[in-house]
Specification:
By secondary structure, the protein is mainly beta. It has a twelve-stranded antiparallel β-barrel with strand order 1-2-3-4-5-6-7-8-9-10-11-12. Strand 2 and strand 3 form a beta hairpin. The N terminus is likely disordered.
Length: 254
């Protein structure tokens, strides 16, 4: 059993160095009440439906520091994707977020994010946003939060002839997590985002994330994630609806 644990830990570390995928930021914060440093390292095997079948091996790492009512969160990823008979495509993702807790139920936050994902038609996408976050429910077994942010977006598609998009979006979301009393080693969480473009609300993105985490050891979890995204105006050549199924491991610390 000890050898199995070491093997799984090495797998997490290896995949974290070569992988990346979009991270549900809210899911990473649902258990962020500890003071000081904390974080996690993920490794995943992914199957995604887009214009073609996509397979990727990826991972991500996040580090968080909470000092009194201030929380600083940094998430970074890098990796590759193999789509059918195409060449291997690299992708990268970086996210920094600052949260200031005003009361037990209200916090203010600002973030910036930079990503590249050529398999989804994105040469580069830069976001910067601010807004409030509300804690609706906080108990030993369940959490419920919601938020509303104004986001400035600059996106360049992989098709060079397409002009650079400079838009403002409203990003509202609702996130929840639940841990059964009879099975405390299992955690279920979900987050759904609604992101219409200001001035053209028919240009909307909807993303929903569903996660099941099973504790294998104190700091090691098996994670299964299903993500589906609808983009009313996607990059050229990309379907309006795409989904991804990810299975992997998460090592936590702090």
């Amino acid at each position: 059993m000890r050898n199995l644990f070491i093997l799984l830990l090495l797998l997490v570390v290896q995949t974290s160095l070569i992988n990346a995928q979009v991270v549900n930021i809210e899911r990473l914060r649902l258990q962020s009440s500890k003071q000081g440093w904390s974080g996690s390292v993920d490794g995943n095997l992914n199957l995604q439906s887009n214009q073609s079948t996509v397979f990727s091996v990826n991972g991500n790492a996040h580090v968080q520091n909470r000092v009194d009512s201030n929380v600083y969160l940094l998430v970074s990823q890098t990796g590759f994707v193999k789509a059918s008979e195409s060449d291997v495509v690299n992708f990268a993702f970086g996210h920094f977020r600052y949260t200031r807790y005003v009361t037990d139920w209200l916090s203010l936050e600002g973030f910036t994010q930079l990503q590249q994902n050529r398999v989804n038609g994105i040469a580069s996408r830069w976001l910067i946003g601010v807004g409030p976050r509300f804690k609706v429910l906080d108990s030993d077994n369940a959490n419920l939060v919601t938020g509303l942010l104004v986001v400035r977006e600059r996106e360049r598609e992989t098709v060079d002839s397409i002009e650079i998009h400079r838009d403002i979006r409203v990003s509202s979301y609702i996130g929840a997590s639940y841990t059964p009393e009879a099975a405390s080693y299992i955690s279920i969480s979900t987050t759904t985002y609604f992101q219409p473009r200001v001035g053209r609300f028919s240009d909307i993105r909807i993303s929903s994330d569903w996660n099941i985490e099973v504790s294998l050891r104190q700091n090691l979890k098996l994670v299964t994630t299903f993500n589906i995204v609808y983009d009313a105006v996607p990059p050229v050549g990309i379907n309006k609806t795409v989904y991804a199924i990810r299975n992997g491991l998460r090592f936590t610390f702090g």
